[in-house]
Design goal:
Ribosomal Protein S5, domain 2, 10 helices, four-stranded antiparallel β-sheet, alpha+beta, single chain, Alpha-Beta Plaits, 34% helix, 2 domains
C-alpha cells in the first residue's frame, strides 16, 4: 500500500458518500452482544472517492486529507475494508466462473477516520460497486447483500446510499422516499471515540423504536420530527470526548436548525436553511478551531435516482 499522492488518472470512479445518522435509538441487544438499532440515515455529497483500473497486480494507494492518517495505520478501517471487499467479491465471482483480474485501487480519503459517518463502510460499499463495473460482472442482489453484511453492519446501507431507516443491527433497510435534501455542516474535533466503550456506557438498551416519519418531503416537518428524536450514543460519547459537546454548542450558536452527533461520533452535524448559511458557518467555525474538520455539504433526497 502506498500513499504518495495516489490517484489513478484513468479508470472507473465511485463515490463513497458520508453516512449520516440523523437519529439513532438503541432498542435491544442480541444474545451475541450485537445491539439492535432503529436509525434514520441519509447520505451526503461529501465523502471519499475511489478509482479502479486494470493492473498487472493488486494494489491500494491513498491520497486526500486523511490518507496519511490511514497510511500510518496498516490496520486502519478503510484499508482493511477496501481490500476485504475486493477479496470477498473476487471469491464470490470466481465461484460463478467469472474472471477477476488484478486491480489498482486508489482511495482519496477525504473523511475523518473512524468518525461515526461510515467512512470505512462507505469505502467498502463503493469497492463492491466499482469492481462489479470494472470486471463487468453480475451477482444476485441477495448474494451481494450477504457480502456487504459480512463486511460490517453499516455496509448494506452504504451500498444502498439512499435515505433509509435501518433496523436490526443495521441490515434491515426500509427506503424513505419522502425524505427531503438537507443542507448541513459536518464537524469533527479529530478526536477518536471508542465505539465499544460508547456502547458499554449506555445506561439503557431497550428504548422504544422511532415513530413514523413525515409522509411528504416537507423540510420543516422533517426537522420538527427529527427534533423529537435523539441519538442514544451521544451522551456516552460526550462523556468520553468532551469536545463533542463543545462542537454541538458551536454549531447551535452558528445558526443551525438542528444539531446532533452522528453514529458513535465524534462527527456532529448541523442543518441549515441554505448553502450560503452553511458556508458562512464553516468559515466562522474554522476560524475558531482551525485544526478541526468542517465541511458544508448537501444530502441526497429520498426520490433521487
Amino acid at each position: 500500500m502506498s500513499s504518495a499522492g495516489a490517484r489513478i488518472s484513468a479508470g472507473i470512479v465511485e463515490k463513497a458518500p458520508a453516512k449520516i445518522n440523523l437519529a439513532l435509538h438503541v432498542t435491544g441487544r442480541r444474545e451475541d452482544g450485537y445491539h439492535l438499532l432503529d436509525s434514520i440515515v441519509t447520505f451526503a455529497a461529501a465523502g471519499d472517492r475511489l478509482t479502479f483500473a486494470a493492473a498487472s497486480e493488486d494494489s491500494l494507494s491513498l491520497s486526500g486529507r486523511f490518507g496519511p492518517v490511514l497510511a500510518a495505520d496498516p490496520k486502519g478501517t478503510g484499508d482493511n475494508l477496501v481490500t476485504k471487499a475486493r477479496d470477498l467479491l473476487r471469491e464470490a465471482l470466481r465461484d460463478h466462473g467469472l474472471k477477476t483480474p488484478p486491480v489498482a485501487i486508489a482511495l482519496e480519503k477525504n473523511l475523518p477516520i473512524a468518525s461515526g459517518i461510515g467512512g470505512g463502510s462507505a469505502d467498502a460499499a463503493a469497492t463492491l460497486r466499482g469492481l462489479i463495473r470494472l470486471w463487468n460482472a453480475d451477482l444476485p442482489a441477495s448474494e451481494l447483500a450477504a457480502i456487504a453484511l459480512r463486511l460490517g453492519a453499516d455496509v448494506p446501507m452504504c451500498l444502498a446510499a439512499q435515505p433509509l431507516r435501518a433496523g436490526g443491527i443495521g441490515e434491515a433497510i426500509t427506503p424513505l422516499p419522502a425524505m427531503p435534501s438537507f443542507v448541513m455542516v459536518l464537524a469533527n474535533p479529530l478526536k477518536a471515540v471508542s465505539t465499544p466503550e460508547v456502547f458499554r456506557r449506555l445506561e439503557r438498551r431497550d428504548n422504544p423504536p422511532i415513530s413514523s416519519p413525515p409522509p411528504v418531503a416537507d423540510r420543516e416537518a422533517w426537522i420538527a420530527w427529527l427534533s423529537s428524536l435523539r441519538n442514544d450514543l451521544e451522551a456516552p460519547a460526550r462523556a468520553l470526548v468532551p469536545e463533542i459537546g463543545t462542537l454541538c454548542d458551536m454549531l447551535a450558536e452558528s445558526g443551525a436548525d438542528l444539531v446532533r452527533m452522528s453514529g458513535s461520533g465524534a462527527t456532529c452535524f448541523g442543518l441549515y436553511g441554505d448553502y450560503a448559511a452553511a458556508g458562512a458557518a464553516v468559515r466562522h467555525l474554522s476560524q475558531q478551531e482551525p485544526h478541526w474538520y468542517f465541511e458544508a455539504t448537501r444530502t441526497v433526497a429520498g426520490d433521487s435516482p
